[in-house]
Amino acid sequence: MTTNRIRGSLLSVVLLVGLAVSVAARAEPWPGWRGPRGDGTCTEHSVPTNWDVSHALWKTEIPGRGHASAIIWGDRVCTATGLPATKARVLLCLDRHNGKILWQQTVVQGPLEPLNKENSHASGTPATDGERIYAAFRVGDEIVVAAHELASGTQLWLVRPGTHAGEWGFSNEPVLYKDKVILDGDSKGDSFLIALRRTDGKTLWRVSRTHQGISYSAPLIREMAGRTQLIQCGDRCVASFDPDTGRQLWTVDGPSEEFVATPTYSEKTGLVYISSSWPKQVIFAIRPDGSGNATETHIAWRENKGAPYVPSLLVAGDFLLSINNAGIAFCYEAATGKVLWQERLGRHHASPVLVGGLVFFINDDGQ
């Protein structure tokens, strides 16, 4: 359950240690990017703090090349990969107990998009509701979203809701909410936020974006300030929407042009935390009870020294954890932005996770 942020580590194998099988019957699912709450937190308690690959229960090679995280539902582990030789984008489902590939299905086949050297043609983590698995890819300049049966891998629907422009490739995750599959399509060209119906892919709402700022940041949906809000970093701003209708609630300008990290929220402080990526990295803590343009009124604190480029932020009780582009982890007092400690941990692309009261950072060397 190490939610590697796509362009990070090459997904060539899947490993499960003893705990994963022993708790499979009672563990909460890990159904999409950053887990069941979209914030990198897990409710398990008995977790190993030392890892030895030689003691893995199983190890399965995955064909092709992909940076999508694995997702888990019951006894199934799923992920995505790209097969450049055949130009196929593929979903795979493995048996959680023994690593056997249960099914492998091509979602779409078509032109390969240009990539940054740290990206792949299968970088967006899929999502599942236990019945269907949803995935998004870029094919040439088109965004493709599809749903497959979790049990068999059979494709149920496929839609092409828009285009994506940018020389670094695609890396956007579907997020599930009620009857909807929500996807961000912010790019250097046609930009949009869209909600598709889970059963057939029909568009339920669509919001056009106007500032053409590329984003790899997944939406965060949470109850905040007395209302359900979808927070999206992209279009050169941070914006809140009503996920039922797509109506925009508030915006905060910047703090930069492009985003990678996914936002997070603290119920304890009542603040939303975001980090911009390019050309500058800045953390904003935002009060989510605003309306209209809240740039001048609702930023509680800001900081740039520990702001991440790729890894997402993590809230753990009173603390906000980050790791910057130099590989230095920072712990902030979440309410104020005061730096409590910092430590060099090595180059990171993976986002931290909180399990059993422990924060796990996994660097690019696998430590």
Unreliable spans: 1-25
**How would you classify the quaternary structure?**
single chain
Could you give me the name of the CATH homologous superfamily? YVTN repeat-like/Quinoprotein amine dehydrogenase
Number of helices: 1
Distance between the termini: 15 Å
Shape: globular
**Top-tier CATH class:** Mainly Beta
Q: Please identify the structural class as seen in this structure.
A: mainly beta
Binned strand content: 35-45%
Quote the average pLDDT.
92
Radius of gyration: 19 Å
Overall CATH architecture? 7 Propeller
Describe the strand arrangement of the main beta sheet, using strand numbers.
16-17-18-19-23
Number of strands: 30
Helix content: under 10%
Q: How many domain units?
A: 1
Q: Tell me about the largest β-sheet.
A: 5 strands, mixed
CATH topology: Methylamine Dehydrogenase, Chain H
Explain what the structure shows.
By secondary structure, the protein is mostly beta strands. The protein has one domain: Methylamine Dehydrogenase, Chain H. 1% of the residues lie in helices and 44% in strands. The protein has a 5-stranded mixed beta sheet, with no helix packed on it. Strands 4-5-6-7 form a 4-stranded antiparallel beta sheet, with no helix packed on it. A 4-stranded antiparallel beta sheet has the order 8-9-10-11, with no helix packed on it. The radius of gyration is 19 Å and the shape is globular.
